[in-house]
Amino acid sequence: MATLDLSEYRELYETAAEETALACTLSGILAAQPKQVCSELVSIDGDILTVAGEQYDLSVYDRVFVLGGGNAAGRVGYELESLLGSRINDGVIVTDDVVELDSISCIAGGHPIPTETAVAGATQLLELADRANEDDLILAVITGGGSALLPAPVDEISLDELQSVTDQLIRSGATITELNTVRKHLSKIKGGQLATIVSPATVVSLVFSDVVGNDQSVIASGPFAPDPTTFVDALTVLEQYDIDIPDTVTYRLEAGVRGEVAETPDKTDPVFDRVYTHILADNHTALNAAADTARNRGYTPIILSARIQGEAREAALFHLAIAEEVVNTGNPIDPPAVLLSGGETTVTVKHDGTGGPNQEFALRAAMSITDPTITVCSVDTDGIDGNADAAGALVSRDTIDAVEQAEVALSKNDAYRVLSHQDAIVRTGPTGTNVNDLRVFVIESDT
Prior knowledge:
Elements: H1 16-31, H2 34-41, E1 42-45, E2 48-51, E3 54-57, E4 63-69, H3 73-84, E5 90-95, E6 104-108, H4 116-129, E7 136-143, H5 146-149, H6 159-172, H7 176-184, H8 193-198, E8 202-208, H9 231-240, H10 247-257, E9 275-281, H11 283-296, E10 300-308, H12 312-329, E11 337-343, H13 357-368, E12 374-380, E13 392-396, H14 403-411, H15 415-421, E14 425-426, E15 437-443
Parallel strand pairs: 4-5, 4-7, 5-6, 7-8, 8-9, 10-11
Antiparallel strand pairs: 1-2, 2-3, 11-15, 12-13, 12-15, 13-14
Helix pairs in contact: 1-11, 2-3, 7-9, 9-10, 12-13, 13-14
């Protein structure tokens, strides 16, 4: 693994615990970056391409195309070009972290709300996908963020309407599964429809998962995966969260319920017979690396869960309760210890403040920490948490000096303002990966 460099974050930490929390966090992000992951799991020997232990003979294919999208897609494309060179005949990738490529068109898109450039990129990808035949190999690059970066709304729905529905669902606190259930039924690409377009080509899917449980149908809304959801499910989600639905969206979903629009393909569809999926990195990739860093620094690490969901501020109190248990009873481990968790918390947005789930998590934790031995770092591994230029925040008992003001900011979904004022914001910029949230609780011995 590449050497961890904390020098550019030197002004962010003052204590050994803060340094350890940051080191664990950054080592987790580093471990999930495409350069690291691909060097371990993707290789070429003559004509034999090996992906996560499975071998594919490139000599039996006429052409190799690279198709995909997501936060990490550009950097995965770079690693594939470095490995395969001229063997790649063509490709299109849409990402918010653009990389200069040779054989692959790397197109800028927006995240988490889809943009015009993302629609244009998705359209270009669809045009290339339509050229594929049974003698071609598709290397599908599917990473977190792909749902927004590969929008391709159906013809009767405008980008503005798709943006409105997406924004409302995100602000409502809907889970990623619920959000993508809707998006799959408003798209030409999602919910296995891209597999239908390229069939009967062979598809080898390289996946970086940002989804709890690694559900392939949810990661980037599953362009090459069977879809277990239906038009009925999509309408149910919109009704559950009382979304202001544009008439065109309602018409589209109701037409699907009536059978006037074909359902997305499910697991019985033969288009998936030649689709081979490999999850190369996920939340555990980051968690395990963070645990190794903690262990190397003399702490006992424990991974609580990679499946934490729900309201961020409530999750913060749950995690803090475990940390306090460690401090007071040594259960489940004795200090010095590092508690780790992943998953994806959400925020029900009621005001127009600046922040995101990890900042709300960190702010609530900072307001509630009473023990000086507890330090917390919480980030989104893609480097962008909510609507702020931040990955998350690093906090301790001493971070917040005006709890009442912090409470007001939290109530207004404005965690960034307080945390930035206290110099607690962690800024990484786009990290080139996306494997969910990463939370680190460092608990020192009480000396």
